[in-house]
Design brief:
Structural class of chain B: mainly beta
Structural class of chain A: mainly beta
Shape of chain A: globular
Distance between the termini of chain A: 32 Å
Number of helices of chain A: 0
Distance between the termini of chain B: 40 Å
Oligomer: heterodimer
Order of helices and strands of chain B: EEEEEEEEEEE
Largest interface: A-B, 20 and 22 residues
Helix content of chain A: under 10%
Strand content of chain B: over 45%
Number of strands of chain B: 11
Number of helices of chain B: 0
Order of helices and strands of chain A: EEEEEEEEEEE
Number of strands of chain A: 11
Largest sheet of chain A: 7 strands, mixed
Amino acid sequence: IAGITQAPTSQILAAGRRMTLRCTQDMRHNAMYWYRQDLGLGLRLIHYSNTAGTTGKGEVPDGYSVSRANTDDFPLTLASAVPSQTSVYFCASSVLSGSRNEQFFGPGTRLTVL
Amino acid sequence: GQNIDQPTEMTATEGAIVQINCTYQTSGFNGLFWYQQHAGEAPTFLSYNVLDGLEEKGRFSSFLSRSKGYSYLLLKELQMKDSASYLCAVLDSNYQLIWGAGTKLIIKP
């Protein structure tokens, strides 16, 4: 693994189903983030984690949950998917939260909820 | 509320210079980032400004004026591979990144 990986690459999901998007980084970064990107809108932060064992809510957290059991993994769960959650989801990480630490992004997961 | 404005789309010619503007109104300011995003790919870091002035990095330069809430990204000697979206993002008082919707840059031969 080099950098950040996400799985699956894409997924079509029936409304009401539960889905977990996976994110793994091998850079030993402390901070990790989940964003969604929709056409015409900027990246919007869903949840973040400043360090293993802690998580926080971003701008659009409703309908999503996260966990950070260790440094490398930061899964995002949709408990009961709805069509408005159709989007491209990016996981990102940075050395530390805040400051000039650039964020490194995974390749994204394209999710369609029908 | 917090707001970041950038033009939706710009067109430029190969070999020319283009300036992409970004204006922001945020709760606090701890720096401004520019990222490049090719279609279907992840954003990648281009530049970071926290003090007023111009930061030059090869063909790309980024300028910041904190008093005006304004930044621009300058791309010189445009190449076809520069066709991409350019995202402006501000680190607010909570050290969260607030993102603009991005500027799609189209390069014509």
